[in-house]
Design a protein that fits this description.
Largest interface: A-B, 45 and 50 residues
Structural class of chain B: alpha/beta
CATH architecture of the largest domain in chain B: 3-Layer(aba) Sandwich
Largest sheet of chain A: 6 strands, parallel
Low-confidence stretches of chain A: none
CATH topology of the largest domain in chain B: Rossmann fold
Largest sheet of chain B: 4 strands, parallel
Radius of gyration of chain A: 24 Å
CATH class of the largest domain in chain A: Alpha Beta
Number of helices of chain B: 21
CATH class of the largest domain in chain B: Alpha Beta
Strand content of chain A: 5-15%
Number of helices of chain A: 26
Number of domains of chain B: 3
Number of domains of chain A: 3
Shape of chain B: globular
Strand content of chain B: 5-15%
Helix content of chain A: 40-55%
Low-confidence stretches of chain B: none
Strand order of the largest sheet of chain B: 3-2-1-4
Mean pLDDT of chain B: 91
Distance between the termini of chain A: 61 Å
Oligomer: heterodimer
Chain lengths: 626, 734
Amino acid sequence: MELVKTNSAVTIFDRVKQKKPCPFGADGRCCKTCSLGPCRVSGTGDVGVCGASAEVIAARNFCRMVAAGTAAHSDHAREVALLFRDVARGEVPGFEIKDEQKLLQLALDFGVEIGSRHLQDIAIGVGERALAEFGKQEGELAFVKRAPLKRQELWRKLGIVPRGIDREVVEMLHRTSVGVDQDYRSLMRQGMRTALADGWGSSMIATDLQDVLFGTPAPVRGKVNLGVLREDEVNIILHGHDPLLPEVIVQAAQNEELLALARVKGAKGINLAGICCTANELVMRHGIPIAGAYLQQELAVTTGAVEAIVVDVQCIMPSLVQVAGCYHTEVITTSERAKLTGAVHLEFNHHNALEVAKKIVRRAVENYANRGAVDIPQDEMDMVAGFSRDTINYLLGGLHRASFRPLNANIIDGRIFGTTGIVGCNNPRVNAGYVHETLVRELIANNVLVVTTGCGAINAARAGLLRPEAAAEAGSGLREVCEAIGIPPVLHMGSCVDTSRILLLISEQVKEGGLGDDVFQRPSTACAPEWMSEKAIAIGQYAVASGVRTIFGASFPTTGSEIFSDFLFNEIEDLTKTKWVFEPDPLEMAQIILTHLGNKRKALGIDKTRKRIFYDMAMRRALDAF
Amino acid sequence: MSKIIASAAIRGARKIVDRAEKKWQQALDRWGANEPVGFPNTAYYLPIIYGILGLKVEKLADMEQVLHKCKLLLPPPVKATCHLPYLAPALDAGMATFFAEEIIEAIKYLEQPDSYTKQEDVTDSNIWLGAADDVILRKRGVEFVDGTAPGFAAILGAAPTKEIAVKIAQELQQKNLYVFMCAEHDGKRFSEQLLAAVVQIGWPVRLVSFGPEVSAVVFAIGFATRVALSFGGIEPGDYRKILIYNKDRVFSFVLPLGYVTDEWYANALGCVNWGFPIIADTPIPEILPIGICTNEHVVSNVPHDKIVAKAVEVRGLKVTVTEVPVPVAYGPAFEGERVRKEDLYLECGGGRTPMVELVITRPMNAIEDGKIEVLGPEITDVSAGAKLPLAIVVEVAGRTMQEDYEPILERQVHHFINYAQGLMHVGQRDIAWVRISKAAVDKGFKFHHLGALLHAKLHQDFGRIFDKVQVKIFTKENDVRALADQARMAYRERDARIEGMTDETTETYYSCTLCQSFAPSHVCIVSPERSGLCGSYNWMDCKAAYEINPTGPNQPVDKGECLNAKYGQWQGVNEFVFQASRQKIERYNFYTIINDPMTTCGCCECIAAVLPLCNGVMTVNREYAEMTPCGMKFTTLAGTIGGGITTPGFIGHSKFNICQKKFLAGDGGLKRVVWMPKMLKEMIAGRLQARAKEIGVPGLLEMIADETVGVTEEEILPFLEERGHPALTMESIM
């Protein structure tokens, strides 16, 4: 921080103190969908110029956040699908199908003929089918069928099964524009349909296609914190969300010629480190260290040790250019979608990716000589990442007995009290990092197994909670399970788009049996304690629509309307059998979660100690045995 | 914690795979790639590799890809800090361990063919039995399926003393569990400890000394794998089903006694894949959370006097042991136990004294249930070494009791007496033979207890077909002789009644779908003149089984209109078979090997095959392990035609069936038989000669070739010609 001051770099931590949130905007009562306003309504009875009440305004704003979040994930997914199709067609040099098994699974889910077809043809079919999901106008998204049957039935009954990804986003924006859908319940039905098009559509497509292209993540050791930057190496920070960028930069950074150049420039090597979800992609697929989460992007630059910060899309602070200006660091944008005034733009596409990557790495290497004073904090923390759904399945029984049975069995017998998915951002408006860490520690101490994605995962990693040794901090039951399997009590499942992995994990658990036949019956919750991005709202809403009790911290964008908030916090339960909860305090949050898990255990009848069953021959015969 | 276990298991697995690779390389250098390898007399190759990977290891060269798979499965060592998850990799390492050990053991068979006895019993010079062949598998494996044996305890190492070893073994036997033993601890081995304590070991007493080294664990796990393959009907390579079948059906566990080495850990983790938990007597770390096994995975530091109870608890096994009021241990595990001369207290029958057993139906009011009378001297009245005449008369009464069930109940006397520890029973009817050991008498066993155990067990197993039973034990010579005469009359009447039954005069046949669990489309139909191909069920047995369990696998089948009298085909039978085979089999014939022969399930006692050159058929019994004139060994034949399919030219049948009148009647009958193993000829010689006389070829037995004549059609044809075998002049069989 001292260094930050001396170089007169202003960071988010300074700005957040000066910039108070607009109170009407913060709680959802500001409407600017037309030029009659912006109208700020103050509570019951007050309406905008057009007559829109607080609940209509809050609902429209909320639904627009869902649409924006879904749009972000879907545009990411579209890019991946395009890349996937082009790779399948053999048009992208240096890329190939890495996970054949998963490709075949996708082909089955998409109804792409397998037969004796060539793998490449199957892949082209899958790519085309995936792309078609975006522009589909009618019917149902293919992955809806991956949800538990009961949940699918409920969605159909409520009329919220997404038809096509783009259609839902567009319709959401239409409905929320001036003078269209002005009933909050009706708006929210489309809000749920849009969110489901994210979770069971775009996010899931992105995750699965990325796995097939880049390999399904498996457990891997990594390191986290700014201490991963190297004083004597060229440091390149990769930041953003699209996995293509890191994949090719990783290849380029291993280029002998560039390594030689680095040595010529006096550096011992080329060190890559990630920020935000790019970091999650890098660590789980390559074991490349994480410099930090969203909030650390500027701080990484202020070490003076970063030759280039290379970004693609989402969660890039425009301030990076200003902060980098105080050092020798180059900010390099790479996506046609995301440019920063003042940054160097070297555009990636599927065909020139490696070439551009080499150019970027070369620039960074060349820039090494321009370094000034360097101050890298010594903090570095071990972590284990890469717990994809497939991997968890494997870890619970080995190659030959892989199944989710042990997970369910240990939930049923009480060693694991329940599970919670902790996702989302980190947020300087709260005691950043503290909220996450406190909540996670409280949960694991109470035997709640935590799965995590996005910056939430990085926060937990920085606190040392992704180390297997953290099992010592877990309650005795969870600790036993973790130590038996050799896992941390908090499982890193990927980037924020990979929250779809958690949906599938839930789905598998329901299918495995013993925890009810719909998602809402399971002792589990979702939580975004420090959320700030619209993507988090989309994720939260698809979680609620999928039957997961969802707790958000920090602030909540509808509290200005009592009526609409009551809908989200109560009435929605009549529809989805679960609801939203808002609670900023981490300890209170933990209590809410534990109470919910306890209630669900009770409803399932697994709140009492399970009696050991002794099997005689007749009972053994009755077991499925296959 | 399990990190220690996993780390050790992975180290152990690496060592074992390394050893297997070296052994294989040496063997390859010595014998060459085409040298045949395998365990004796089995159709399951190296069974774990075959079951899990679906690979047939038939020669040394085949082991290369298995070793390659082992290496793919072997995980890196577990790091001290910030380690990656280890349980799953350790389970994989355990699996690799088994593949490697099967290779090691198979090469051992090659290097030292006499390492193992290759039979059910130990010999004077060798106490290690090695892999169970398919005969043992069939005989013993079925006990795992029907629940007679709930599972097995795989014991590694040795108990601290031989007395403790005996206690543990006996406790396991009393729970009807098999005990599979291997490996050594501190220079001692559990099998040797039992022998030192003069305990009989071997398959017949369920104390199986597989091998001296830890690698012999694969004989136990290979057995479990074959149970799933053969009785579970699971395809080789469908590893998941094989493992879950074992977890849910074969309630086994592992008892490592003594210091747990890295290699032991590797084997133990391998067993966890099958759902078999580890219960150790040493303070090793524990793995308590559930999931892969039914309950805990590793439980340790269990005192020896609690270890069996603990193991049964951890496995979640409910052992239903009937209380049989006898002062000695009692259970099927003791059935194969012998009483040697030096241990003998008292002997009855066996040609030394008259002995007879008879089950007879009486009116209800003539029987007092549970009444046991000993008429004549009790055991306590004679001194060691005595011989006494003995008649055991079991009188039953009941509303559903029929005279036809008498022989079925009578056959049980043999088993039920044998179940008592220290008693040996051989034979039946008036050729029975009982030995009672000093140890049993020391514990207070008396003749009275023979009655008590028969009363208890008959009620337990056959209570549905009678209501009351009382037992009279006669030990005075005059009484016994008189009863024997009376019994012989009863036997004659009974035999005449059964033999007089024909397929034509019987309207109701019985189905047997007991084997559908492993041959899903197989349906046996048992008629009076075609007993079940497994040799275990004749028509009467099926009828009684239906009475005992009306919803069980034996159902009455109204045979309906006769469609073909020569080949034996009926409308009603076809309809039943079509439905019970789940629409797989539309029709079959009873009396022919050529046209739509009956399906075969794989547990047949014999398999007949057409020998076109000789214009006849051969038949081979399961016990005969060598080549036959049809070019296949029994195991290959069973693998080819078993599984519930109908295969023209081949048919499974029982030994008894060979001399029944309808045996291949449509193809010319017994006269078609041109070859069978010598041992089979000897087994059925009496009945075969009688039947040969009936059909007018009294010298047929001498005309049938066996392996001493030849094992190819070309070799036996001149013999048949020389002896004038009738098949040569019959119409063409094809």
